[in-house]
User: Fold this.
Amino acid sequence: MQEQGLLITHAVDGLIQQLSLPGKVTLAGWSLGTAFLISAFCSIKKFPAAEIRETLKSRVQAFVLLGLPSLLNFRRRICDLTVLILDTATYHLGVPAPSGAYSPLFDDQLSPEHKLVAFDKWISSYYQHSDLASRDSAKLQLSECGYDEFREKTCLTRNELERVSISEPLELTCEIKMVGPEFAPILVAQADTLLYNRDIRAAWGEPEIWCLYGEATVWTSI
Assistant:
């Protein structure tokens, strides 16, 4: 993961230089891509060349960690470096699931084909959580059927092209492997670096970190 992060930031620096990109740039990762984006954030101190570090620090204005597309219309004036965590799934941060929490990705009673169908319905439903301000995981709706039956699932309103563009069986297979228990310590370590490592944050210029989520989204993004 560290090597992947270094390659990503190398690519960003190369694109800025070769394409003579004007102004600031924003780096975004979606779903499993958020894990690799965090790796890129954590890699800045690994560059031996101070010139590359300074280019990244001065030209990258935001890191956007996207879990669900529901918050893509979020708008905020970004003046200094900002990290926006938008509906990012706990799996990609290495956060363990609460006891009794359901996810079709890890439902052994489903075949790989049925996991995709079940995931589509599960991830696009609106859930009726309790007091989120309490920050108590017991207040989350963790079951597979705790959704609002009067709000239509997003998967029922999109066309086939939209469906294929955001969910393919191969992607889910890769995601299940990457967020398994053997990878959790790595994901936790880099998430902790993003949030708490003073040297890394200073190397980027002390970014603001914003965490946004939908109040009716699945528990993994809350």
